[in-house]
Amino acid sequence: MHFRWRARRDLLSPHAVTSSFSTAWLRGDASALAFLSDDYRHREARARAVAAAASRTVSPALLDVLAAQNARLAPSPARERNLALLARPGTVAVVTGQQMGLFLGPLYTLYKAASAIVTARALQEETGRPCVPVFWLQTEDHDLPEIDHCFIPRRGGGPCRVALELPDAATSRAPIAHRHLGPSVLPALATLRAELGAEPHAEEFLSLLEQAYRPEATLASAFTDVLSSLFADEGLVFLDPRDARLAPLAAPVHRFALQEAGTLSAVLAARVEALDRAGYTVQVHVRPGSPLSFFSPDALEGPRYRLDPAEAGAWSLVGHPEDSAITQDALHAALEREPLRFTTSALLRPLLQDTWLPTAAYVGGPGELAYFAQLAPLYAHAGQPMPLAIPRARFRVLDDRARRWLGKVGLQPDEVNVPRDALLTRLATRDAPESLETPEALEARLFGAFSSELERVAGQVSAVDANLQDALRRTRGTVRVAVSRLTGRYRRALARRDATAAEQVDRLRTFLFPQDAPQERVLGLPYFACHIGARAFTKGVLDACVPFHGDSKDLTP
User: Fold this and answer.
1) Long-range contacts of 446-453 (CB under 8 A, 24+ apart)
2) Is 513 exposed, middle or buried (0-12, 13-18, 19+ CB in 10 A)?
3) Does the pLDDT value for residue 18 go beyond 60?
């Protein structure tokens, strides 16, 4: 199955879920480029980044752990070749990563992996140097409410939310690496079968999910099993940093974060102020004087806490129920003795990643690009060059059902990306007799006529009694409110005029613009894999990815 794609120049859409920084950066605004280079657009700069990364090598200890971690995944000769390439001097990496969303989370997870693969191929072709795509599993994160669910489109109403029932999800602080799925994954899988079992490719994909997502499995292992199966032919390599064998390799980065906490927080805070002055929303908050590491005081696999400066030579554990503190000496001793107690924050993770790997480029989404704008002072203080920042592919899938629904209501895909009532009103007035006005025209006509007459009266009454002007102003306000209410009722009546159109609009919005957000940020893979085929969809995305290309595209399988 082949996908056709069409670029969509919608970077400036008010409905796009991007930070103000990433929007400006993708557009090429000079003020954004002052914080994060767009060198990925230029072939010479890409060559320099690859050459710089090629001067670094992967340590034998990391190679051993990588081999062991990837050996448990779906068989892949391509992945084995890539692991062998990483052991060779001169090989570079293109890295991406993501949290462990249930059933792979939103579609953009797949798009990030595909973008890293295509980018690695392109850099290797351009430079002649071996380039390996690596997926960094963000298992150190602890935000369960962001990942314990998946959305699939539903024929009627909004998208169907399929979720784990985890009572402590909102309060859990333990890294995701140690979180087991538990028995609630079984009803979640049953919901997928009930909703998608009739789709032509359902059995193949749902069986894959059921093999991976078992109650005794962790969120991370199930996620990795499925994603590695989808990209086995491409040789995508997976790296889980939350591994006891890797903790000693992470210790120098955490030691740097602890020893330089004051300086790093100061330079990063200055960066935040500069971004704020430039008018950009800051993605990651910087705590004054705090290191960029989390610490787990109670157990190696237990809750993790940020550290705040306390009295001289001590740190407080932010949010710890016992309001605990730890001395500087005790913290450094813990790092030497049990480095697995330390985990990275969003700002420290890229530095750890690029310390371990010969990273030529990182492929990220809009949010990651925004916090990459904060990273330059951190890399400079560590004496390490930043890799290329490359935007991931962004897609909107228009399958046969979506195209059929669009045809029935006579809309283009971009026209769906407006509020529901406004869209229904547009359809009602478009198909209504010419005598029916739009709500805006009706309001302008009614209030315009009254306002003109009121102006004429105002000239008369001022000659009689100047105090009547206040009464006229109050009357004007009262009538405006009344006309607005009438117009609102008229708008809603138009919206209810065609129940069939309303049903078709709801289907389209559930599919193309669910929850008033881009499709790729809400809907997950299960529907598309069951309807189109998991490999066919994955291959279609890979074929549609254009290296070093940040525009959104429509995919038409």
Assistant:
1) 446/483, 446/486, 446/487, 447/479, 447/480, 447/483, 450/479, 450/483, 451/476
2) buried
3) no
Q: What is the pTM of this model?
A: 0.87
CB 103 within 8 A of CB 192: yes
Q: Is 221 helix (H, G, I), strand (E, B) or coil?
A: helix
Tokens representing residue 158 in the block: 């909004």
Does position 159 have pLDDT exceeding 70, yes or no? Answer: yes
Quote the CA–CA distance of 26 and 116 in Å, as a whole number. 18
Q: Which of 298, 301, 294 is nearest to 315 (CA)?
A: 294
What pLDDT does 10 receive?
40
**486 or 428: which carries more pLDDT confidence?**
486
Task: Check pLDDT > 80 for residue 472.
Answer: no
**Which helix (H) or strand (E) covers residue 377, if one does?**
helix 376-382
Token readout for 143 is 């935000």
Q: What's the pLDDT score for residue 156?
A: 64
CB-based contacts of 150: which residues, under 8 Å, 6+ apart?
101, 102, 103, 104, 105, 161, 162, 163, 524, 526
> pLDDT tens for residues 41-61?
999 999 999 999 999 999 999
Instruction: Say how far apart CA 5 and CA 504 lie, in whole Å.
Output: 24
pLDDT tens track for 313-354:
889 999 998 878 899 999 999 999 999 999 999 999 999 999
- pLDDT score at 19: 47
Token look-up 């030579």 returns: 313
- 294 within 8 A of 342, measured Cβ to Cβ: yes
Supply 220's token pair: 């991370």
CB 251 within 8 A of CB 293: no
Q: What integer pLDDT is reported at residue 205 of this predicted model?
A: 98
**d(C-alpha 134, C-alpha 450), whole Å:** 67
- Kindly report, residue by residue over 397-449, the tens digit of the pLDDT: 999 989 998 998 889 999 998 888 888 877 877 766 665 777 888 888 888 88
Question: Cα separation of 244 and 241, whole Å?
Answer: 9
Triad 188, 189, 193: Cα angle to 5°? 120
Provide the 8-state DSSP code for 546. -
Task: Determine phi and psi for 399, rounding to 5 degrees.
Answer: -85, -175
Closest CA to 405 of 511, 486, 313, 317: 511
Q: How far apart are the first and last CA of the chain?
A: 7
CA–CA distance, 118 with 99 (Å, rounded to integer): 21
- Say if residues 21 and 280 touch (Cβ distance below 8 Å): yes
CA–centroid distance for 271 within its chain = 23
pLDDT band at 465 (very low <50, low <70, confident <90, very high): low
